[in-house]
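thought: user wants a sequence for this fold. calling inverse folding tool.
action: design(structure=
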């Protein structure tokens, strides 16, 4: 049983699909498996280790394919090393702030 306290303000949707990611300071993309997604964050599993606060570019590729794939920037907020050597990561989605000043 998980001891994680739910802290998201938006509902999670369990998603089983592939995603590609790269650290913002790297050119190479890696593969991962998406676990769940919300309007504010994402959870995924991969074999690549990150640091808390690291910014990562993510491309989500839903299966079965729908009309679009999407990409966005995330900030790593949680890292759990699994017994199988993989990392279960939690991240918040970083949105660009609009400049609404006239």
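)
observation: tool returned 102 residues.
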């Amino acid at each position: 049983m998980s001891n994680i306290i739910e802290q998201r303000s938006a509902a999670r949707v369990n998603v089983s699909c592939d995603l590609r990611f790269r650290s913002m300071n790297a050119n190479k993309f890696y593969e991962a498996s998406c676990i769940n997604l919300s309007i504010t964050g994402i959870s995924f599993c991969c074999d690549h280790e990150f640091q808390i606060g690291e910014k990562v570019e993510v491309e989500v590729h839903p299966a079965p394919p729908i009309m679009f794939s999407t990409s966005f920037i995330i900030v790593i907020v949680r890292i759990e090393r699994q017994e199988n050597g993989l990392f279960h990561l939690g991240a918040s989605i970083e949105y660009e702030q609009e400049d609404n000043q006239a």
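thought: summarizing for user.
answer: Here is the designed sequence. The beta strands are 13-23, 30-37, 41-46, 55-61, 70-81, 87-94.
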